[in-house]
## 1
Amino acid sequence: MATKVRVFPLFRAVPRKGVIKADHVVRFDVHQRIQHILMMSSFSLLALTGLPLKFYDNAVSQWWVALWGGVESTRAIHHFFAWVMVFDGVYHLVYLGYSTIILKRPFPVEMIPSPKDFFDLLADLRYYFGLSPERAKYGRFNYREKFDYFAVFWGIFIMAGSGFILMFPVLVSKLVPGWIIPTALVAHSDEAILAVSWIVIVHLFFAHLAPNIFPFNKSIFTGRVPRQRYQHEHPLEYEKMVAADRESRAKEEQDA
Amino acid sequence: MRKLLVVAAFFVLIAVALFLAPATSYGLDQYQCLACHSRPGLSKVNGNGTEISLYVDKKDFLNSSHQYIDCTTCHTGEPHNVPTPLTKLSLAEKCGTCHQYQYEQHLRSIHGEQLAKGNPDVATCVDCHSQTRNPHSVVRVLQTDAPAYPKNIAATCSKCHANEQLMGRYGIVEKVYESYMRSFHGKATQLASNELSQLNKATCVNCHGAHNIKAVADPGSPVAGMDNLAKTCEQCHAGAGVNYAAGFLGHKEATPERFPVVHWAERFFYLLTASVVTMGVVIVAMESGRWLADRRGKKNGGQGRNGHGD
């Protein structure tokens, strides 16, 4: 008798996102988790190999570059991880396109900024200043998470675009006027500082130092969030998920 | 046994003699010039009435590239009867008696031309090849402490070319040293170790020439005009053309008139970065502040608030 082998498809026909389990909610699918790991590693290595060039007259930079094998070696590593980051961006876009167009899953409108985000910010400001006992109630993505997402979206275009101009300046100068190159340098150099500062100050705080998830929020790696936390952090979406779960259970019982 | 002792004593005596013997200059100072001239403070009053130093720092000299030639190679004839004052030009001429090619190039350079006209402001051999502008301490270019060593040459040129007062006299307003060090060429050279393979980025002399350096406006200069500049870039950047060279800011900042896109991009990104990072700091501060305030509130027996960082 042949045993049935379960094949796990690359994409599930029914989205696993937002599926409620006994003690946790599945928030991120495997693709999103891989995309984050690729982003995290490439960003870190790009920053580590790029910052010494920004702060070149610091003695630590010289030591650091020597550690990585010299200027040419540091540059090669920087270029390698640039390709990794670009691949990650393409992976994400393909994933979005495939999910929505081919698999016909609903387009992730929850990520798109809306007026509610502005009002959430106001409500949070009242909460921060002690004028309100509660913070705003968020949906699937709060305004900080949306900002983070689109900041990275914009950031990748700027960094990859300017980066490739700097990687192939001779080729680029044959297609566009030469002043594109110093412009790309300004964009690349400054946006890098913006991105690194944001990640170190904001992202690391909310992902590592925030008291309720210290030492780090592992849900981006496991894909799962404990139910109670999910209810606190994304109450509006949680209600919808619970209601939908109840409905589908009721339907199952009916069909049974 | 006695014979052995005698032989041993003999060797010991030799060793002591060598150890205790006064340090003399090496064999090539055959006239023992350094016996007097290594005395600090040795000086004379020259024809102009100025006091000039006759002191030669032996330590410096023995580190220099000329330590293996005799004093009389340069100080020919009767060195005690040389008419002074010596000039920068006469010094360059003397270097040229051996370094003929470089001297002739130097004479054709902007520095050499001006030197021949009696201009004392310009650089001559010892200004670039010695830390102390002293012919006795000229070091080889590939020594890591040489002023003309790739990692040091920019700082050496900047001794004059970053002196605003001096450069103002010749209409040279560009902050060449600053702008070079901010460019990839300058940064990579500074970050490089002392391995030759890492020292292949352009320095001042790679683009402007070394001994035959010409003024930027001189059509013979490798950076005069877009065509020359492109050819110079192509020395390392294969295939670079005039468009590529047109992207060079020319040791000057971008302004709204010259490279306006670069200028406004600088402004834009500075503002963007400052405002976004400030916003980020404020958000983190508010979040942390509220959490701290809540904790204090809870400690004081108040009700817990619905506050969670996420």
## 2
Amino acid sequence: MKPNSSLPDYELLQAISHGQDGALLELFDRYGDRVLGLARKICFDLMIAEEVTQEVFLRVWQKADQFDPRKGKLRTWLLTIARNRAIDRMRKEGRRPPREAVDWIEDDWRPEVTDPLSEGDEPRWRSLRFALAELPAEQRETLILAYYHGMSHSQIAEYLGEPLGTVKTRIRLGMDKLRKSWREGASDAGDRDVYQGGKDMR
Amino acid sequence: MSAEQDHEQVQPLLSGYALGSLEEDERVLVEQHLDDCQICQAELEEHQAVTVALLEIPAPVKPRRLLRQALADAVRPHALSAPSPPGWRRAAIALAASVVVVLVGMGFLASQLSRLSNQLSSIQSDISTNQTALAITSYPTTQVASLEGEQAFGTFMFDPTRTIAVLYAWGLRDDSGEATYSAWLADSQGQRVKIGEFTADDNGRFTMVVLRAPEPIEGFQAVGVSRLNGSGGPVPLEPVLFASLEVLE
């Protein structure tokens, strides 16, 4: 049995901050698939997504001592870095998502998501995925462009050829529905999962 | 504007704020209002909980073994247990600390830190190139073209259906050490399309560079490398490296 395999996330990160490369690989084994899956949705290119994934874990290797467990979960920190890095990469290369591939929810449909390290939020993620899939396509597409591609409202309006006001309304209506779904799926109050990071998440 | 008017204006913006999609002036307006409005703070927390959950929505993709191995190779040479030598990160931190202690004068400190920063950037760039090269070698449809020249030779590794390739070249370094090279692809009409610009490696090893074409490489007939003159044009007209891609079909 590997020495790091049973360590909680934060202790794993402490091992990484002490230069234990085995701990970094353990973290990769735990969350590499999530990071790569998210990067691929943003980058649309598996090779670029793999490069971004490497960058994310090398970033963790460099900045492990900057993670503050009081600000949120390690998993959230990791995925937030991944999102930011992938969006930055696409911006740097001047790449935009192919119009026909923006709405990936149907292609990504998985009725069951199992995760032994889910820490109890798995059912809520499933509910949110359902809620996202059930949004009107135009609301879902707008939310995907905003969150997974880092576009501003005006950029989305220009990309879709829609009025700015329409984009803002779709964002608001779509997020209200997702928020309602998330609230209804709550089992325990006070589960603060937002990582209050900042510059350390790029 | 009254606090109530602020609230009416800001509340509809909270979802965009959580998504990070507001324009700059709207973002500032929201942040100023949040300091004094607990209702909006609570609503924002709900929006942010959704955006955090959205990070988990995309289906996981199992990484290839090569990706894990590349990560292990990238950190292992620098991650040693006690006592010495430390990893590159710790060596860099130790060097910076010793510089701060020993130095006299901000000018010398600034130049040393700048050199260290350049070294780190070079290492990170090498890691990125190596990772791309590793990724390309693992694709089953990857092809290899041998580049030939009078004094240099090389290898052009690519997947015909993709736009990315890796060039390895030996013998490009010239006496001045300042030559810049341009890599290009030639189409069926003989038109050259530039896919990258680089300088030869300065430490005696082969030069390795990632190149990106504007369209899949299978649409081109040849690959070449030319030396550029000071104004960016090729010198001489003959490429220093060349390979036909037609024979690989």
